[in-house]
Amino acid sequence: MKRKLNRLSTMSREEIWYRAKEALRIQADRVRHWFSFELERDNEFNLLLQANQGSFKSYLEQVAAPRFYSSLVPKNRDSTADLIRLSLPENVEQGIAKAETLLSHRLNLLGYRDVVLDKDIDWHFDPVSGYRWPKRFWADYDLVRDRSSDPKVIHELNRQQHLPRLAKAYLLTRDEKFAREAVLQIETWIDQNSVGCGVNWQSSLEIGIRSISWLWTIFMLLPSKSLDERSIRRICKFLFLQIDHVCRYPSIYSSPNTHLIGEATALFIMGLIFQEIPRAAEWREKGRAILIKEMERQVLQDGVYFELSSYYHCYATDFFLQAMLLARLHREPLPEWMWKRLNQMFEFVVHLSRPDGTIPLLGDDDGGRALALAAEHYGSYRDGVSSAAVLFGRPDFKFVAGDIAEESVWLLGADALAVFKSLPAQPSNRLRHFCTESGYFIQRTGWAMKDSHLVFDCGSLGTESGGHGHADALSITLTSAGTELLIDPATAIYNCARDWRNYFRATRAHNTVVVDGLDQSTPGGTFDWDSKASTRLLKQFVMAGVEYIDAEHDGYARLAQPIIHRRRLLHVRPNYWVVLDDLRGDGEHLFDFMYHFASGTKLFVVGDEDKGEIDCRARLNQSSLQISLYSTASMHAEALCGQISPIQGWSSSRYSERRPAPVFKGSVRSVAPVGAMAFLIPQKHAGAGSGEGSVKTRRLNVAGGQALAAVVRDGEFEDLCVLAIDTTAKLRVMDFTMTGEFFWLRLENGTLRQLLAVNASSFSSAGEVIIDESRKISHVMAHLWENGMVIEHGAEEGKVYVRDLRNRQFQRN
């Protein structure tokens, strides 16, 4: 009650008025449900039959189907099937094999593999938990708080996304057994799900997705004898009743995110196809209006979906793609900016995709798909990228997609294959993709399988509720040589397992710093937070050979003795990254520096804990990662895996699945401020995890103030990093003297060749002054050689070229 009252106090007048009207609609529908009274719709249906010589199947074939995707327009249907059989024989073979499995009532549900359904399918029975959902009025369920069974399983089953795969097998083989099974399953579903009764009417999104599944099934099965006049009339009547429910109860305020986008997609598509139904105009226009409004509201200016979940980003993109492709096909007006935004959404997917096409699962992972004609989840979204390559004519999209996806042919028609083949496959010329509004910074060393790919998450929890965000501010993921090394553990579960739900979205499950064993943001309910960290980007720039990002969050400012976590990331192309953690505040705290690895990784941890010097080496397949970690205080190092109490060391590749995964934890108990410097050095040769051929790093002594300094050999160079904890002190490291926050030096045979200084006021090398300023310079890069120097003093002031060695001091323009 307290939570509800708090929620009520934040509602606008518009929301209160809308919810009041919705409550009245629900009550009216509840009364109709009690008295088994349905709204009369047969009149409209009979008029439609009269206009089509009494044959609804004829109406579908001649009028409705030509408005669906061009691959299934009657005149194109057979040629599309022929093209797929000829051009994608492996897909056809796999698709038919999966359909054969579906005939025996075996299917995958989320991460549950090869789930067996009864011969007579009970659409209210959860085959995983064995729980049968009770039948009650649809609005009388509270699935988030119901602990009987995870509702995602029953919802996933009743999306019936396996039916188009049965129908596809029929279309490709013309074997009636596939059609019979698909029609039978729809009809048994209708038998068991009277309007408004049962868990399968509870969510308008689930109804919308099921409606889209039925549409694909119907239009693929139109040539089939199994889909006779009696069946098609019954199915379409129930299809219209379902979309009426979506139109009546969209998730305007209850789940105003992907739920609303998916519902609008179903409304728009249904309204566009069945224009002869009087209420179809309302479906279409309501769907269009919501799609336009929600793309503007839910997709940020940098093209990232606002819930800041990579999986839900793919969900939203997939819904928009379906609706907008059909709008373009039929010249339905949509604002031009929507196409640009959709292009941006796919650009984000392209850059987020690792060299093997998979994406890191940042934030929540729903486990399902908006459309599942072939692929069943968004561990990779190459099929969407394939369609976007054709739609936008993007060679860089084609490069990431690889081959054309089967889904692209179904969505875009036979011409898609020719367009895709005509495009050259060219990787993007950008090795970085910085999304400053959402806070994602993506870096890669190249676009080949051997290259490395890193994501630095400087974003917040996303929406106001943060429902699908995780407490992962300033976390990183890293893949190298085709192997996932530093991971985001993903989600595993939403419901019925609070401890597991909270673990997978906890700070300690991500590659960041935990203070006093607490989360940056405090979890509340399943999809909300009691306190939320705010993240702030302080600085980011790119200079010759280096990229620098600086951000902080205030999640631990709520402590009695507050702490601010600041993390800087330096990428020295192409060989390594430096992670710089600065934890400032008051009092003594426990700081845990967390690094999570893919399941199956072997860890080797050595070092001098008293000096705060730890070497962690991880090996998986033919790839390895060296993490050399240095801290300002002693550090206790440990490796954990598959721990239950407390939960630690787990990962998930898809909703409902989890497996043990190793974690390195370096713990420092000290009075703030505390600093740490970690070198992340991917290596691409076998045996490196055991130490053979590993890159050498070593710590250096610093005089004059509190700071960290270390050196790493990078080929013929030695690179020196200095992180100042006391930023006002004049520090002395080797032959260098400096004042500022951070310095990176590149030495060749002991001679300074390159200098990066950040928020610095002075620097000298062996007594020779290079920087001497009365106020701090934001960032400066100096390139030195025997008879001259080039200084880059930030983008706004360009370059200064100094020829004479006697005048090597930095001067302002």
How would you describe the overall organization of this protein?
The protein is α+β, with helices and mostly antiparallel strands and about 800 residues long. The protein has 20 helices and 32 strands. The strands form 7 sheets. Strands 24, 25, 26, 27, 28, 29, 30, 31 and 32 form a 9-stranded antiparallel β-sheet that branches. Strands 11-12-13-14-23-18-17-16 form an 8-stranded antiparallel β-sheet, with no helix packed on it. Strands 3-4-5-6-7 form a 5-stranded antiparallel β-sheet, with helices on one face. The longest helix is centred in the N-terminal third of the chain and has 22 residues, at about 15-35. The chain is elongated. The protein starts with a helix and ends in an 11-residue tail after the last strand. Residues about 685-695, about 800-805 and about 810-813 have low confidence and may be disordered.
Summarize the helices and strands and which ones pair or pack.
Elements: H1 2-9, H2 13-34, H3 42-50, H4 56-64, H5 74-87, H6 89-103, E1 106-109, E2 112-116, H7 151-158, H8 163-173, H9 176-192, H10 204-221, H11 229-248, H12 258-273, H13 280-298, H14 310-329, H15 336-352, H16 382-392, H17 395-401, H18 406-412, H19 415-422, E3 432-435, E4 440-444, E5 452-457, E6 475-480, E7 483-486, H20 498-504, E8 513-515, E9 522-523, E10 529-531, E11 535-543, E12 546-553, E13 563-572, E14 576-585, E15 588-596, E16 602-608, E17 613-620, E18 623-631, E19 636-640, E20 650-651, E21 659-660, E22 663-671, E23 674-683, E24 697-699, E25 707-714, E26 717-724, E27 731-733, E28 736-748, E29 751-765, E30 768-785, E31 788-792, E32 799-802
Antiparallel strand pairs: 1-2, 3-4, 4-5, 5-6, 6-7, 8-15, 9-10, 11-12, 12-13, 13-14, 14-23, 15-22, 16-17, 17-18, 18-23, 19-22, 20-21, 24-25, 25-26, 26-28, 27-28, 28-29, 29-30, 30-31, 31-32
Helix pairs in contact: 6-8, 8-9, 8-10, 9-11, 10-11, 10-12, 12-13, 12-14, 14-15, 15-16, 16-17, 16-18, 16-19
